Amino acid sequence: MTIGTDRVLHRPMASPVPPVWAGALWVGDLDVRELDDAVARDTEVLRLDGAEGYRGARLLVRRGDTVLGFVEVPVVAGGLAIPVLADAAARFDRGAAERAESSAPDTTATTVTVVICTRDRADQLRDALRSVLAVDHPAFDVVVVDNASATTATADLIANEFTDPRVRLVHEALPGLSSARNTGLRHATGDVVAFTDDDVVVDPGWLTAITRAFASAPDVECVSGLVPSGELRTPVQRYFDDRVSWSRNLRRREFRLAEQPADLPMFPFSVGEFGTGANFALRRRTALELGGFDTAFGAGTRTGGGEDLDVFTRVLFAGGALVVDPSALVWHRHRSDLAALRSQAKGYGVGLGAWLTKVALEPRMAARAARRAPQAFVRLVGKGAGGLAEGPEHAVGGTDPSPPPTVGSAPAGSVTAMLMGSTAAAVPTTAATALTDPTALAATPTHEELAREVRRVGRLELASVLLGPARFLRQRWDGATVLDPASRTAVTDAGAPATASTMPIRHPTPWGIVAALVALVGLTALVPDTAEWWRGIAVGALVLVGPGAALRTWIDMRPSTTLVVVPATGIAVTILLTAAMAATGIWGVDGALVVIALLTAAGGLDRWVLAGRRPERRTAHRSRVPRFERWLTERATVVRGRLRPMRRHGRAEEGASS
């Protein structure tokens, strides 16, 4: 926010096109000290930069770095009436802000690494990077993670426009926000790692607020902040802004697992109160100890989201404190059209369902979640009904719970009433005036259309939750998980790879699954009163397929070789085991079957759990190749290298003799 000598207020996030909706709001922020100065100088009007087409304005009122709340006031002739604005801001507790600033610790020595993950959005990344480089914290660097981009636009942007030594570009070839953030985390050098997106503008005091929040208590491991909408140009943006809670979390709060907030019965699963992935920070040490981000979640994966929900709850269950500080401010541009809103709603729903699946599979989390399941179901169905959360219509803050006074003549009004009202009389005049521009009508939905779409979006989000479990389990099937203990290191550590793309995968190979299933089938032969025909099939499958399938998980073979080696391995193992048991005097048919089944299952599952496919395969998981497999692969390579010249020599001799 800047007010020049000519008393012009500028937006923190410029809008690319003018508004075509009568309820559009000009968005900016205002320091009450500047407002007091304007009042003292008898200034009557505060002009707004780029106010054409706006009838109302939403201002984030602050004192220095401390956020006080929002006000919405009418725009008259491209400006704001200072007396009206002063009346609206008078309700805020400035004394609390002054006390907070006077007692703020000095955190200038705290080092921070900002991680921005991007994919083919160089134009948006430009504004985000410029705002990050303009922050007032002295000790920070920036890691830009280019995540599987199809073009070189991001690399060209960094090379040509951001030569600042604080900016580093790294690449992550595996698509997925969590994989990209893990790569950024491992490239980070700061004590604190702050994560944001490429479609934001951060406040100059963003990192200062984050580091102060970490310094507020020794157990603070995660800090999130306020993410208000930087643009309210369309009714879709206003709907989204009213619906999400993290855009209006204006009260500073500290959350700990052992401290149940009285106003949050869903805690610690009231994730909307914890913030969002566009604005949060972790202690680097803690983030690595937790295993970074779970690659089963996030944009670019089948689940499409949920990575922020997962990391917030994991911090709490690990015993850390999570601080929500609205002074850590990041402006975000919400989706502006219905198609993007539908896509985002589906992603949120799938991500939520996937995250709930993980909660249900974690015993410690599941025990707490079970007690809150009825309330969670009611809230989820309410979301699916298309209900809207009440937005910050005027002055909203954490210091004064009293209802806001009426500001000006006709406030812009909440989109809740605008969209859900059944008649035109229910629509505030400045927010619901019918569009008259034919081109605007073509681009912007009518109130009835948007009201119907709101209900559809709610149902779509609820239905998408049902897709979450299957998507999550498929991600797990593909090996997606957190960093394994051996990989929870910085890239500067010896032997540590730079990205996820060159690491092996925890993946249940087909032959490993066959080995495990055949072992189970073989054990059914020991069940009393089993039919003889089935017992013969079970024993035959175990002997002829089981040990060979386990071996096949470790060694690549041609199909023709597999047909011979698999049964031969089983027969050989059976003969050797029988001879060994007979020699030791412990021979027994049942015992032999049990031993063969255990060897088969162990061989297949060891490959499943400890390794997976070839180490050069792209994967979402970072896991070291077992030592035995590395040795076996190296030996096989040596043998193949020796056999090739011998084969060529043999073929040459055959040709000469013919």
Describe this structure in words.
With 658 residues, the chain is an alpha/beta fold. The chain folds into three domains: 8-97, no CATH class; 98-487, Alpha-Beta Complex (Spore Coat Polysaccharide Biosynthesis Protein SpsA, Chain A), CATH 3.90.550.10; 510-610, no CATH class. The protein is 45% helix and 14% strand. The protein contains 22 helices and 15 strands. It has helices spanning 32-40, 82-89, 94-102, 122-133, 153-161, 177-187, 206-215, 235-243, 284-289, 307-317, 338-361, 363-384, 415-420, 429-432, 438-443, 447-465, 468-477, 510-523, 532-552, 559-584, 589-610, 627-657; strands at 8-9, 25-31, 45-48, 56-63, 66-74, 79-81, 112-118, 140-147, 167-172, 192-196, 200-202, 220-226, 253-255, 279-283, 321-332. Strands 7, 8, 9, 10, 11, 12, 13, 14 and 15 form a nine-stranded mixed beta sheet that branches. It has a three-stranded mixed beta sheet with strand order 1-3-6. α5 (153-161) links the parallel β8 and β9. α18 runs antiparallel to α21 (589-610). Mean pLDDT is 80; it is low at 1-5, 386-443, 501-506 and 608-630.
